């Protein structure tokens, strides 16, 4: 009953009668007032313990109503966690869904934005189905999944707007009818004034100005960032003053910048209509700086704003509350009487309260069957066991038991009855094991899309060679691979620093901009965060972006965007959105502090949700690219920086053969020791293995090819059954990626049981390599290091056969 959607409509004074106009205004006030009541009640629910934390959009209601009027089907939002009124006004969310998210209800359909995984005010719309297939995004008012890091939405916003430019200007994309209507879509972004101090904001503003894309950014300015006032946040205490240099003038491209008071309903409606028309029709970025806003309940439920705001400020805020001001204007304009508006407010309060009650009761009701089952199971087991009887009674007496309490009781009962087998205990165990699967789906599923185009569903095609196959530089293999795929799939686009005109610093894209045009192979500025955001936004709109980071070392500049946004996207939306970005970079064996390029543990720890591909040469890289181009999940692929000019045989089917992800390969068979390595270090290991043969040691060398996923076929454990010894060679720091590889082999694959000695790791030193060949030699594993480490392991196992070298 409480799930009805009440949306706002545009105002066209030239066509509307007064009664129609009055109806729209009253409806807008109703939405704003209901949203305020949801904020007030939501805060109360947190403070009474029903929810863990709450953050709300109070004080921003009226400008969000105005913004919603200009938001059309096909448009996109990349916003801020204050935008609940906008979500209500566009129909993206209902009040009941808002509260279901506040309670973290994982029941199917309760929180359609995140499946109970995100806190309130984090919205998303359903872009894809369970099988990964796309919905018709032109028929949806699209909302990209919110993230909590303030400013983080800005990087993605650039890509969402850039997609409209590509759809408008690249006619090869006209067949993608479900993704765009001639590129007419606007990407709406919102951000708080304090977060405009962040680097990603300025990077995104500059990128959109350069690209000239239909991006409409609204800044909600309430003069504070939690407790910190604007004088400590922004030069001149006014972000639109700071950004005046971006204002377009004559034939000089730039922004249209607008400034409007956040409590002035008619002015807001007028400004938003004008600004979005310019943005949509002229395809230029616009900025709307909404000033004199308030935040009546403070930043969040973590504290009160009375602690840091002066009495004068608090008094001003109470007088300039946007809902109060809209109410006064409606009365002064004779749109409504005091009696009518009082009745409206009374009804709105009741509506919100009922929606909250329904959401809370449905949340509890979803768990009551589980509570009853566990109580019954434990009661049946509790004969002559007072401790079990106590657990059962406590759980039965818990009126608002949540799932954690239910499972704590169940697991404790299982532990306490471990020595007392019974049919009743077996029933509880059977139930518990079934619930493990159910709870995995509730709380742990969809790290990856796992749809019909998942990488492991892409057909494996072997590389084909014949006597005419040429030996070429590795870079030429990549270039041929990219050329074939760009000819095959017009959705593919690539962009990055120096990628376009010169074909990237290592010539993988040489000549391809001239062949496919600047819209598809594009140079960018030095702006790693928004290069990644450009990729995310394009991928969310159905394109196939290759977002290049010039060197792996520079990935650090974009790690926040990749980790907070891209890596968690499928998980945090429970699989209703995807962004199959391919992050192309290069690293490993080079020289110098800033180009040493193997911080793999950083990537492994930060980017679960992406595939991490570490091919040993450019042919393997091309095969993995061919897989990723046909798949629909995001990945990072690290090319070997010292391999571009090494000779490789060019496959006849260079654009077609595929290398499956997670399939390790035995490069050389051996009997004495298993060595696992990846990337450029494999060549070091292979060279060392040749010398070790002369010392009577046979080395089995395994290349995992991808670290996420890692060796799904358990090739490493199978090798250990033969050799019983393990060495991991890694260019990362001690305990970095080598620790991850050990965990995968010893724990995940049970490789520990096949060892007859301590497994070893040979890694780089715990610092970045100094410049020069000598610095590389003394900082990263060398052939000498590998030979002597393996020999020492053999000596420890058989000192008579392998006498000590030193």
Automatic annotation (TrEMBL):
<keyword id="KW-0786">Thiamine pyrophosphate</keyword>
<dbReference type="InterPro" id="IPR033248">
    <property type="entry name" value="Transketolase_C"/>
</dbReference>
<keyword id="KW-0560">Oxidoreductase</keyword>
<dbReference type="InterPro" id="IPR005475">
    <property type="entry name" value="Transketolase-like_Pyr-bd"/>
</dbReference>
<dbReference type="Pfam" id="PF02780">
    <property type="entry name" value="Transketolase_C"/>
</dbReference>
<dbReference type="Pfam" id="PF00676">
    <property type="entry name" value="E1_dh"/>
</dbReference>
<dbReference type="InterPro" id="IPR001017">
    <property type="entry name" value="DH_E1"/>
</dbReference>
<dbReference type="Pfam" id="PF02779">
    <property type="entry name" value="Transket_pyr"/>
</dbReference>
<dbReference type="InterPro" id="IPR009014">
    <property type="entry name" value="Transketo_C/PFOR_II"/>
</dbReference>
<protein>
    <recommendedName>
        <fullName>3-methyl-2-oxobutanoate dehydrogenase (2-methylpropanoyl-transferring)</fullName>
        <ecNumber>1.2.4.4</ecNumber>
    </recommendedName>
</protein>
<comment type="function">
    <text>E1 component of the 2-oxoglutarate dehydrogenase (OGDH) complex which catalyzes the decarboxylation of 2-oxoglutarate, the first step in the conversion of 2-oxoglutarate to succinyl-CoA and CO(2).</text>
</comment>
<dbReference type="InterPro" id="IPR029061">
    <property type="entry name" value="THDP-binding"/>
</dbReference>
<feature type="domain" description="Transketolase-like pyrimidine-binding">
    <location>
        <begin position="472"/>
        <end position="646"/>
    </location>
</feature>
